[in-house]
Q: What sequence folds into this?
């Protein structure tokens, strides 16, 4: 059974860079699927940030594209999210997921 | 972006009674590959979202058969045949046909 676990700093100052890693267990990233980051501001709905394939092909939400970089490390079975120049509007629970949301991490709260 | 509109946004239901949630998209969700990538998520209080139904009508593993999805094109429905206490939470529809992927606002199901 695939499991995903987000990790990274929970508190940032405005203008800093958010860096999160998702560690995948029970499934090899090299085997396929897109891997995604989704966020949820406190008390609000969901927003798809972006997706990355094992090859490194990425799709970023147009509203975040200028600030987002996603990467994958198949040797560690991890994928990562970097979001630069954060503001209070980036405060949210950040989730990593597989494919079209068939498996989710527990989420990590990032406060700016 | 494809706008996903759910109704109702609040759904009080008596235990054992049926429940129905509607989701309408601003664009046809049939992909060029012929599939319709409309999915339903359940988010229980304090937990990560969990996908219940994928591609309109397919239940994910472990999802009770009292959950069913239907619809086509731009109109979709999630039905719960007999609501149980564990069904309390927020339900989101999600489309992964058109980039950027988008979510409905969420429907909060509570026990009356």
A:
């Amino acid at each position: 059974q695939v499991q995903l676990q987000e990790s990274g700093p929970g508190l940032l100052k405005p203008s800093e860079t958010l860096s999160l890693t998702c560690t995948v267990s029970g499934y090899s990233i090299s085997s396929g699927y897109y891997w995604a980051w989704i966020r949820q501001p406190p008390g609000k709905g969901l927003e798809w940030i972006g997706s990355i394939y094992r090859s490194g092909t990425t799709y970023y939400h147009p509203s975040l594209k200028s600030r987002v970089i996603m990467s994958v490390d198949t040797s560690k079975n991890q994928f990562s999210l970097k979001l630069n120049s954060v503001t209070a509007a980036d405060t949210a629970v950040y989730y990593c997921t597989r494919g079209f949301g068939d498996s989710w991490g527990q989420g990590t709260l990032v406060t700016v | 972006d494809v706008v996903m509109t759910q109704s109702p946004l609040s759904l009080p239901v008596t235990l054992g009674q049926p429940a129905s949630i509607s989701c309408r998209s601003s664009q046809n969700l049939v992909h060029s590959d012929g599939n319709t990538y409309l999915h339903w998520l359940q988010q229980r209080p304090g937990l990560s979202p969990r996908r219940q139904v994928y591609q309109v009508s397919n239940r994910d593993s472990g999802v009770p058969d009292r959950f069913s999805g239907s619809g086509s094109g731009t109109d979709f429905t999630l039905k719960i045949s007999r609501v149980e206490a564990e069904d309390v939470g927020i339900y989101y529809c999600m489309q992964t046909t058109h980039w950027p992927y988008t979510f409905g606002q969420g429907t909060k199901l509570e026990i009356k």
